[in-house]
Amino acid sequence: MAGSTPVSATVSAGGAPGVLVTPEARRPPISPWQDAWRRFRKHRLAVVCSGILITMIVAVLVGPLFYRVPIDGIDFSVRLQGPSWDHPLGTDDLGQDLLARILYGGRISLAVGFAAMFVAVFVGVLVGSLAGMAGGKTDAALMWVTDLFLSLPQLPLLLLIIYLFRDALTGVVGPEMGVFILIVTIIGLFNWMQVARLVRAQFFSLREKEFVEAARALGASRFRLVWKHILPNALGPVIVAATIDVAAAIIAESTLSFLGLGFPPDIPTWGRLLFDAKDNLDFAPHWALFPGLAIFLTVLSINFVGDGLRDALDPRRVK
Amino acid sequence: MSASTTQARPVPAAVGQRLLEISGLKVHFRTDDGMVRAVDGVDIGVDRGETVCVVGESGCGKTVTAMTVLKLIAMPPGKIVAGSIMFEGRDIVPMSPAQMRAIRSKQIGIVFQEPMTSLNPVYTVGQQIAETVRHHEGLSKKAAYERAADMLRLVNIPSPQRRVHDYPHQFSGGMRQRVMIAMALSCNPKLLIADEPTTALDVTIQAQILELLTEMKERLGMAVMLITHAMGVVAETAQRVVVMYAGKVVEEATVEDLFANPRHPYTQGLIRSIPRIDLAATTHTRLEAIPGTVPSLLNPPKGCRFAARCRYVTEACLAAEPPLVEKAPGHKAACIL
Fold first, then answer.
1. pLDDT digits (tens, 9 = 90+) for B17-53
2. Which of B113, B116, B118 is the mutation pick for testing A, counting most A CBs within 10 A?
3. Where would I find the beta strands (DSSP E) of B185-330?
4. Where along the sequence do coiled-coil regions lie (chain B) (predicted)?
């Protein structure tokens, strides 16, 4: 840490090695976040992976604006072709361009991943902080619910919920939006437990900290204590858990789509593409390979970024 | 040099008037082993502009008494069983949490023992001081920052304008304690409770912090309740001393009177166990200590609580608890001798 700001040591004119530091030459105040960023930058793999991740995100957001091939342009004369200049990632059994479909599908997959993460983190922080702050019976009840959710068999339950509610919801807000809301909600609601436990544990240790006591002695209300003093200090592990949640949500969405229970067939999410490709694996492996690679790269990058963030936000863990 | 926005309150004309009057205070804690009577009938008075030291060894109820004044003890398991805490004529004990929040730091400030961990690591010290004054006095962001810088200047932190933007990890222990004092004083409290403010600091810094407290007290005209276990600190800063033992007050006197003529054997023991550098140089006697340990507050002994460790113990001591009575003008002790 020290030594990375050599400007701060102004050596006196006499040339005595680093004795005289002029009063004005000093390190600028470094916030804990800046400090974390400095540590994050040292984690090479995480930096490379955040590069990959950002490229992916930019590609799916901006890509379709430049690569203007329609996602549903059916052309049976070029069906099931491998990569070529016309179709860089090949075509599917209807002759639809795969690159266009992967770029468009990436929007949905990533949007589901991040939205579901926000749902999970919101619920998790809410439950965790309530339990951690209240203690006693409230805590016991909330943790009981958390354990209950952890012990539920998730996949069968997801399938059941989708069967039950898909039609009702798509009737109200349209097929695409309806499925999006449904999937984000249920993936979010099945992934908040880790965050809740984490936040609760953080609260238990932080609320006994002297600075919280000191803030209370200065007249801070309970809400203020939680919002301004405890939560910002508990954020590090939550951010790490959140990145892992994004990856988990992308996988979950792919699984659902692969089982044919996600988005309707005309919306090509990455999982949906894999589902469509599975019957043609023998003679058109590229069809499954590219969406699979997209999922793999994204999830792997997110996990490595999470790894880097953990090291950056929890300095004690660095060896 | 003096802080412009911190209105230096003139030492009130009514010196001698009671600011804080703790009477018959009993604070008990429910534990798995039973009721711990941490504070068991304590009377302490603090006049305006006065420094009162509360001394006693670890576990005698000093800190619990101080924390109870601001109702900072965890309730439950803690409970104020009896007694009243009159602050400016109003009883704090029945006050609601909202009323307590208005009293904290605006009327009564507190400085804790552990400066290293008493500041929130994610905010600059300026933000932390500014937050308090904005919250209590509704100042604008800019004015609050100016007040923060003024407060840092007041507690003698060099280049305060720049230091307000620094994070706690950029301050040393002594400097952090100065920041804590600045924070506690930022809303001009009438009473400052300092709970062993120098215990975690090394000796030279201790002296500086005590000097600072005395200076602040004189400049702002507030009263100080200083909690400590160091008799040296008492001699240096206090006007009046309250000696506590096992949840009770055993002696109360002016500082001169207490050191010249300690009435309670416990106080005598405390004074005898002060290291004497003049004697250590010439003789090779061991440092004197009071034998034994503080009795359990779960089930305090009948009779005088100090009896088991007292060199003058008699039958009468074991039979009934001696009350705190005035032995000489302004000098109370709870001993039958």
1. 888 888 888 888 888 888 888 888 888 888 888 889 9
2. B118
3. 191-195, 223-228, 240-245, 248-254, 325-328
4. none
Sheet bearing B331-333, strands edge to edge: B108-111, B191-195, B223-228, B51-55, B240-245, B248-254, B331-333, B325-328
Mutate to test the interface with B, among A21, A218, A223, A224 (most CBs of B within 10 A): A218
User: Distance of CA A28 to CAs A229, B129, B156, B175, B179, Å?
Assistant: 24, 20, 21, 18, 19
Residues of chain A with pLDDT under 70: 1-28, 80, 314-319
Query: Which neighbouring-strand residues pair with B240?
Result: B52, B254
Q: What is the full DSSP assignment across B53-64?
A: EEE--TTSSHHH
Phi, psi of B29 (to 5 degrees): -120, 130
Helix (H, G, I), strand (E, B) or coil at A252: helix
| A-proximal residues of B, 133-152, CB under 8 Å | 135-136
Domain boundaries, chain A: 1-30, 35-317
As a whole number of angstroms, the distance between CA B159 and CA B152 comes to 9
Query: How far is the C-alpha of B35 from the C-alpha of B76, rounded, in Å?
Result: 12
pLDDT tens column, B187-235:
888 899 988 888 777 888 888 888 888 888 888 888 999 998 888 888 8
Q: What is the C-alpha separation between B312 and B264, in angstroms, rounded?
A: 10
Query: Is A280 in CB contact (< 8 Å) with chain B?
Result: no
Distance CA B196, CA B247 (A): 17
Residue B74 at interface with chain A, using a CB cutoff of 8 Å: no
Token look-up 């440092």 returns: B287
Report d(CA A221, CA B96) in Å as an integer.
Answer: 12
Q: Do B112 and A216 touch (CB under 8 A)?
A: no
Domains of chain B (ranges; CATH) run 18-119+171-333 (3.40.50.300)
Compare CB distances from B122 to A215, A222, A233 and report the shortest one's residue.
A233
**A138 close to B (CB below 8 A):** no
Q: Which two tokens stand for residue B318?
A: 């074991």
pLDDT for position B2: 43
CB B239 within 8 A of CB B255: yes
Structure tokens at B178: 């100065």
Q: Which amino acid is at A138?
A: T
**Are the C-beta atoms of residues B235 and B318 closer than 8 Å to each other?**
no
Of B112, B121, B136, the CB nearest to A213: B112
> What distance in Å separates the CA atoms of residue B205 and residue B159, rounded to the nearest whole number?
19
Whether B105 sits inside 8 A of A217 (CB atoms) is yes
- Of B218, B125, B115, the residue nearest B163 (C-alpha): B125
Distances in Å between the Cα of B91 and the Cα atoms of B21, B74, B109, B204, B209 are 9, 19, 17, 39, 31
CA A118 to chain centre: 8
Give the predicted TM-score (pTM) of the model.
0.75
Domain boundaries A35-317, CATH class: mainly alpha
Q: Return the beta strands (E) in B161-266 as ranges.
A: 191-195, 223-228, 240-245, 248-254
CB contact under 8 A, B104 and A216: yes
Using DSSP bridges, classify how beta strands B90-91 and B78-87 pair: parallel, antiparallel or unpaired.
Answer: antiparallel
Question: How far apart, in whole angstroms, are the C-alpha atoms of residue B334 and residue B249?
Answer: 8
Tell me the C-alpha distance between A191 and A185, whole Å.
10
pLDDT value of position A25: 53
B169: number of Cβ within 10 Å = 13
